[in-house]
Amino acid sequence: MTTSFDAHSATWLAAESPAERAERDAGWHWAWGPAPVDEAPRQFLWDFTLAQALGDARLLIAAQKGLASVWLDGRSVHSSEDVMGGRELRDIALGSLAAGPHRLAVQVRLFHPFIKKPLEGGLAARLSGMSGGGAVQFLAPQAHDWLTRQGAAEGWQQTSIAPPWEAARPPAYDLEWRPTAPQGSRLLRRHVELPAAPLAATLTITALGGYEAEINGLRVGDARLAPENSDFRKRLLVQQHDVTALLRAGPNALGALVADGFYASEAIGRGRYPFGEAPRRLWARLEVTLPGGEQRLIATDEHWRSAAGPVTFAEIYHGETHDARLEQAGWSTPGFDDRAWEPAWAAPVPPCALNLQESPPIRAVMTRAAESITTLPNGDHVIDFGQNFAGWCRIQVKGEAGRTVTLRFAELLNADGSVDMSNLRAARCTDRYTLRGDAAGETWEPRFTYHGFRYVQVSGWPGELQAGNVEGVVAHSDLPVTGHFESSQPILQGLWHNTLWSQRSNFFGMPTDCPQRDERLGWTGDAQIFWPTAAYNMDVRGFTRRFLADLRASQQAGGAYMDTNPPALPAAGAPGWSDAGVVLPHTVWRHYGETALISEHWDSMERWMAWIAEPNVEGLWRQRRDVDFGDWLSLDAKSLMDETTPKLLTATACWARMLGLMVDMATAIGRSDRVAHFKGWQTRVQAAFQREFIRPDGRIGNDSHTGAILALAFGLVPPALLQAAADHLAANIRRRGTLLTTGFLGTPFSLDVLADHGHAGLAVDLLLRTEFPSWGYMVKRGATTIWERWNGDTGDLAMNSFNHYALGAITAFLYRRVAGVEAAAPGFAQLGVRPLMDPRLGAGRMSHDTVRGRIETAWGVDGDGCCWFELAVPPGLPASVQVPGAEAQQVGPGRHRFTRMA
Ligand code: BGC
User: Which residue's CA is minimally distant from atom 1 of ligand 1?
Assistant: First the structure.
């Protein structure tokens, strides 16, 4: 069972300044217009009178869906062309405003090109500025203070008000969005007096925001970006550290640096504070056992003090700004004088569950040196790390106080050698460090952001930049690595390498789609197709358990899993995406033999299965497909939602597969009562699929590659038509030019289906192909991670990540059929060995750490062109070996060698 904590057992200390608190207290109000009549923008007018002048006036303004333009007294103060943006928050400097009447005129966009229908929308605004007496004044108009209309003609900002302008009203539902401008970091600390060095001490700590804790000047633990991303309305992960060695007799100090973190940073579609409200909060309990057994609890309470920290801006997507001149040396040591600091105050107790983080934390796992540095004509330096990865840079710099070094991160370069950030969309991915001017030099790395990049452009560097001055820090969820694959075939080596690096980059608390652009979401579809590969590369047990708990936390009342977790986007239950709720526990059971996860997750899976079945009694998944992505990014798709394989087919195939997995899992946990139920449904869905999609000659659906692959992979083809269906598929692949047209759903199973049905040679052709489209094409074009699209190099940069593991899901095939090893029974209780032994695969070796020990294989081609294969089986693990052209045989522990005649 997950360990939970009582949220009331320590005070939630606000990590905000008095000014930020005053601003928060000023509140603001949404103003909405009636349902839109068409796609035209909506206009809003607010006429107000200032009793006295305001200096340094600011307008904080938020709009749903997008903020097109803002005018103050007829003067444009903001305008944007970005029709793709979602919710928008702007902090606009207005200068001085005279006493007297003013008009704010705002145009809000209601239309999003993807959603294809106009949406209700509106805005919220808050004006602030200094009054004559030096106090900050806030004006936050109510909904009815605004007048609104849609489709006003040119010059509307100056209009004298007459119908059809009408009073705006508050929205009819809670937007769950309380926009707040990005905030700088806060330091929180307290003094702790101990009569003796403790025998044991545990720090249990978390924050709504990002935090790093220190005791007596030393950093606690090595987790990065804690607490990791989750749906903070439901679930917040808590970190626990043994801090015995950090405490001593006498005075001690406990400190935390708190910044925006995942809690307050933007999420696509939801804006800042996507799953909660300001303020950011720190929660901690230090439990100490003294000699003699006395227990002491030092928790966050009114004894803590707070001050501004040196991180003046920190955002997951946009980057971090650190002004080293604002550092307070020794702030977390006992001798520090904190009398100038403010007393910290209590913030509300959040409604979420506090769950101990049991999965491996994000850590800085390794560093990378620059491979090359070029200098641009403007003096900027561009560093190439030779590898795309997720993390950040650590710099060592010597220069004068006040100089700012700027780092901009990217996956691509422009023709002139500068970084090309266009595929990052709204993510600004920029770090800034202002030097304090240490004569001995200074070292810095950000703490509250991360980037997906290969290149970094450095501006403002003092003097010559040496390779050792900027290091790449590779960060990810620190799962044990369990797979290693080496091949003399550069394409295979490249594919394995690129997939591993995409897994590293995207196992980041959540399994994300990509680590760089303004997305980085836990897309369930990407996860479910990738999991079998992931489980070869790393021990994914803890990581899966954590993600399934998140899936359950956001599961809809009806039973659908959200398509993204945390659920940044409102879509749920997409076929091939929400399947993750069933595929992940099944994968973990098959790979590690663990049934505990199935039991823990069982009721949730039952609800998901029931939700699909309820309106689809005939056995085709017609209803409740919500946003059906289908075979996403398949080769023939002209636009994103194109149906290159009928979506009813892909959905029904996914459903049939899940039902089969449910049968397996019900059997595994002894739920014989449910085995018959799911078997019954599986039979019904299979029959319906066959009626609807399988033609008498063995062709399937619209004869697309993915249609045939899914039908064959998920056991939907009647035995009499199996070979015909596979032969049609093979002929179809050849006809297209020996290439696959598959997208996310068909690709992972493509080569297994061919190899399992007499077309192993074709599978190898596809695996080794280097023309477009293929995995080899990416390798040949210099990819160091897996591309999101087959045509990453020419694809539309509006959706084009170079570090997306989905198409790398084929890497499990390398382990299964090149290195030859799979679990023939759950947890490798029986080893299945079926190497292809094709001379074109060259030589190689593989090792995989299973729960039953390490398995090693090696393969190659000898002087007479005969393929050989060697296998080392650990004790107690029976193996059934099937090499081409020979009968299956059982072998025991030890080393075995097999040859296939040329
Ligand atoms: C993501 C995908 C995801 C998809 C949903 C994209 O924006 O990057 O990997 O699965 O949306 O179709």
Answer: 513
